[in-house]
Every structure is written in structure tokens, then in C-alpha cells.
Design goal:
The protein is an all-alpha fold. Among the domains are: about 50 residues, Serine Threonine Protein Phosphatase 5, Tetratricopeptide repeat (Alpha Horseshoe); about 50 residues, no CATH class.
Length: about 250
């Protein structure tokens, strides 16, 4: 979602491409394909070519956030998140109304341990009527509370996320996670049933529903759903989780 918003913003400018935009587009292509180091190289070059572009700064911040996910040690992760925060701040310095960059800043701050400061930025972004992705902002707020085991507040924000966009998978999954954490399994099942009605082909939601049935001991309901996910998504996260759960089923 974040990459699409950047591309749309740059395309809307309708300008002839210079070196900065060429390097920027190359960086985004690398990001889509998971080539983070190459993406950083191109996006740094784009920023060097045009240091006053908030879009280039945002793209660089997104890349640093992805790098933090790749880091194998805390020092690497801290540096990457520090750079992500700096790039998002620079994007906002260049355009104080760039609400999507504020989303990035809030998320990077939370990830770097500055949780209240990060939530303040996310709340400001959520309240901005120009926010292009309020469901994402609400989900990120919910996740920040979930990580602190404040499941009630997390649930409120996940529900807000779904209220803003019923087609947003992560909002529905957040609701289920918050309900799982409170051992409210039947409620989780009802919510995931509703999610599946909104998104009937979503394997992540189908897998989560199968897991909810499994946790509730309703194995005959869980098995076919998990089998479907494992078969259709054998290498994806949802499929791997489904396969793992299927191994734990009691013998028939």
C-alpha cells in the first residue's frame, strides 16, 4: 500500500523524468522484489539528485524500515530505524501536509521504542481528513497496544480499522488476535466469519478461522479450512501455519 501511494503521488506531478525520478522508480522496483540493499542504493541516489522531494525521502524511509526487518542484530536494526525516522521527518519538513509520511514516522518511532511519541504521530495522521489510508493508521495503533498486551485498546483500534475499510485483511486479523489473546474464541470465530464474507478468497483470513476452530476444539470445522489454505498457499505464511496446525490434530 505504501509503495502504491508514493508512485501515485509522483505520477500526479506529471513532470518529465529526471535522474532523481528514474533512480526513485528503480528503487521502488527493487523494493517490490525484496532487493532491499539495491533499493537503498537507488533511493539514496534519488535523494541526492533532488534532496527537496518529500516523495523521495518517504521512499527512502520505507526502504530503511524494510531493512530493519532484515537485520540480524540489534545494532543493525537500531540504525535502520533511526534512518527511517530521519527520512520520514525530512519528508514532513519538506511537506508538513504529507500525512502518509506521518504514518511512516509514527510507525518507525514505535518500532524504535519511542512508543508514546509514535502514537502521537499516528493519532495526528488518523485525525487528518486527507489521510489516504486511515485503516492502516488505525491498525498500526492497534498493533502498538497489542504489543503492550493492552488487548482492549488494541481491539478498539482494530475494529476502527475495519470500520474504515472492510476489505483490509490486517484489520480483521488484528481483531482475531486481540480476541484470541483474551480467550474469546467464539467471538473471534464470529468476526472471522464476517471477514470471510467480506473477503471470500482471502487465505490469511480462512487460515485464521481454521485456527480459531482448532483452538476451540472444533476439529471437524478446522480441518477442511486449514487443509484448503495449506494446499493453496504451501510456501506462504498462511499455508505454513495451516500445515503446522494440521500436524497437531488428534488422530481420527
Amino acid at each position: 500500500m505504501a509503495l502504491g501511494l508514493i508512485v501515485a503521488a509522483v505520477a500526479a506531478r506529471g513532470q518529465t523524468k529526471g535522474e532523481g525520478e528514474t533512480r526513485f522508480e528503480a528503487g521502488l522496483a527493487h523494493l517490490r522484489e525484496g532487493r532491499i540493499e539495491l533499493a537503498l542504493e537507488e533511493l539514496k541516489a534519488a535523494v541526492k539528485a533532488d534532496p527537496k522531494s518529500p516523495y523521495f525521502q518517504k521512499g527512502l524511509g520505507v526502504a530503511w524500515g524494510r531493512m530493519a526487518d532484515r537485520c540480524r542484530d540489534e545494532k543493525c536494526r537500531e540504525r535502520a530505524l533511526k534512518e527511517a525516522v530521519a527520512a520520514a521527518r525530512k519528508a514532513l519538513d519538506l511537506n508538513q501536509f504529507y500525512v502518509d509520511a506521518r504514518n511512516d514516522l509514527g510507525t518507525a518511532l514505535i518500532r524504535s521504542g519511542k512508543r508514546e511519541e509514535g502514537r502521537k504521530e499516528l493519532l495526528a495522521a488518523f485525525g487528518d481528513p486527507t489521510n489516504p489510508a486511515p485503516a492502516l493508521t488505525a491498525r498500526n495503533l492497534g498493533q502498538s497496544y497489542f504489543e503492550e498486551r493492552n488487548y482492549g485498546e488494541a481491539l478498539n483500534w482494530f475494529q476502527t480499522s475495519v470500520a474504515r475499510d472492510k476489505a483490509y485483511t490486517d484489520g480483521w486479523l488484528g481483531i482475531a488476535d486481540a480476541l484470541f489473546a483474551q480467550n474469546r474464541l467464539e467471538e473471534a470465530i464470529r468476526q472471522l466469519d464476517a471477514a470471510l464474507q467480506a473477503l471470500p478468497d482471502d487465505l490469511a483470513i480462512l487460515g485464521a478461522l481454521g485456527e480459531a476452530y482448532y483452538r476451540a476444539g472444533r476439529f471437524s470445522d478446522a480441518r477442511p479450512r486449514l487443509q484448503t489454505v495449506a494446499a493453496k498457499d504451501p510456501v506462504g505464511a498462511a499455508g505454513r501455519r495451516a500445515a503446522e496446525l494440521l500436524k497437531k490434530f488428534p488422530a481420527q
